[in-house]
Design goal:
With 203 residues, this protein is an alpha/beta fold. The protein has 8 helices and 7 strands.
């Protein structure tokens, strides 16, 4: 998993509440088990018309936000079904950080497993960042995970809280498999001992 240290990029405003996972990636794209290729279908039903034409008013179709790395959204982002394809689609598009007043629990947890930093902030601070994000290509925001600090276009700074273990995992690019592989020496030693003490156990 790619490490998350300092992210600087354009922040796209999506001031909608209750953005569910079916809005993020519709059900017809859940057949794949690959984490790549889903970015083009991110927010499919809001980005495109039924005949596949772009909806120019949708934020990620606007020239200033096509390369957005940060998403500033409303309450309860990622609600609905628990599909992990939702963070896959966001990451494949290039979104590495989502800022909102609240997140659905399963989506929030899935973000960390896929290298995305979800930041919870009071609504007043999210509103300030939404206002900054309205600046289009000038809506450049820096998120420093080590300092747990967001710097806006005008240099204003906002601190955010984060669980230390989740922070450690993102800084070091550790998903569940990566965490397990950190213990590979202990695992190998255990299996070697088991082969001697209980040779009838197939490993």
């Amino acid at each position: 998993m790619e490490k998350f240290t300092v992210l600087t990029g354009v922040a796209a405003p999506l001031p909608m509440i209750n953005v569910d996972t079916d809005m993020i990636i519709p059900k017809q794209f859940l057949k794949t088990i690959k984490r790549t290729g889903l970015g083009k279908h991110l927010f499919e039903e809001m980005r495109y018309t039924p005949d596949g034409q772009e909806v120019p008013e949708f934020v990620l179709n606007k020239p200033a936000y096509r390369g957005a790395r940060i998403l500033v959204a409303g309450d309860n982002f990622g609600c609905g079904s628990s599909r992990e394809h939702a963070p896959w689609a966001l990451a494949d598009f290039g979104i590495r950080c989502i800022i909102a007043p609240s997140f659905a629990d399963i989506f929030y947890n899935n973000c960390f497993k896929n290298g995305i930093l979800p930041i919870k902030l009071p609504k007043e601070q999210v509103d300030l960042l939404l206002d900054d994000a309205q600046r289009g290509a000038n809506a450049t925001v820096t998120v420093d995970l080590e300092k747990q600090e967001i710097t806006g276009p005008d240099g204003g700074r906002i601190k955010f809280d984060l669980d230390p273990f989740r922070k450690h995992c993102l800084l070091n690019g550790l998903d569940d498999i990566g965490l397990t592989l950190q213990q590979v020496d202990s695992i190998d030693a255990y299996e070697s001992k088991l082969r001697t003490s209980q040779p009838w156990v197939a490993l």
